[in-house]
Write a structure and sequence with these properties.
Shape: globular
Mean pLDDT: 97
Largest sheet: 6 strands, mixed
Number of strands: 18
CATH topology of the domain at 10-52 and 142-225: Gyrase A, domain 2
Order of helices and strands: HEEHEEHEEEHEEHEEEHEHHEEEEE
Helix content: 10-25%
CATH superfamily of the domain at 10-52 and 142-225: Probable tRNA modification gtpase trme, domain 1
Structural class: alpha+beta
Radius of gyration: 20 Å
Strand content: 25-35%
Strand order of the largest sheet: 10-11-12-9-3-13
Length: about 350
Amino acid sequence: MQTLLRTPLHDRHVALGARLVPFAGWEMPVQYEGVIAEHRAVRSDCGVFDVSHMGELEVEGPRAKELLQGLLSNDLERIGPGRAQYTLLTNERGGIIDDLIVYALEPTRYLLVVNASNREPAYAWLKEREIRGSEVSDRSSEYGLLAVQGPGALERLGLPPADAFTWSMGEIDGVEVMVNRTGYTGEEGCELMTMAEDAAALWDRVLARGARPCGLGARDTLRLEVCYPLHGNDITPETDAISAGLGFACALDKEFTGVEELRRTKAEGPARKLLPFVMEEQAIPRQGMAIAEGGEVTSGSLSPMLDVGIGLGYVVAEHAARGSALTIDVRGRPRRARVVSKPIYKREEPA
């Protein structure tokens, strides 16, 4: 039986009474007081997630950019030190090995934050393709990572506003951090990277500033409301970026692994598309449920903000238009749904 890994914050989760579950080889908190309460805390004020299970891969050397330009879908020429970029690591078929964020640390040094379940495959893929003048290293064990998210996050942390997908060094109450203006909830906030030995102190200081501890359950419902795909559910090595609606992260005018397949799919039009939908009958969709019009649900849940069932799923192209009617097989019972625009949930701004 596999021994589960633990983040530097494991003892803190136990002390707070978190419900711990296996996730991608790690023992992680799925919830503290409850998914709905934690979800709403992030939407209304500020929550903090332990995401130290994510992988950190470093690529450095005079040809580091050249290596990554040939393997990642987005264009690194668009960013420089102090900037970050959402991108995909693709295989020869244009399938998605991982979706990740790359940070330009220096002109010859890059940090890739990859999904926990894909750390080893992503590292192996990059390492096997090293070129002279580049070196790939797995630095995951050296860091702790906290995601502080919500409309009140920056104020509680005492941080000024900054553009999305930028980063800078700073400190939170004496703890040195890399402040990354990124996140997976659709809210303002940041992800704070620190040395592993400082992660517990950082967690304590963030909680002392009023952030609510949140688990993987709320992280999943938050990302689903804003239609951020989850690797392993909505995107996989067998799904392509165009069908998944991630063409914006693909620079099809440059050469990278699988680009010819992606160009072809874009030119011909995908046979099916990953689309958001909302249930029109009382039902909660779940991954793997069939869509009668052709397709299947890849992610589904009850929306804590809208109080209806919502989901993402692949649907044949002729049923992909906004407003199209869908029929979801919910445990043998057909239930009506409709295709909607992204995001499924959007905060109403005061008049």
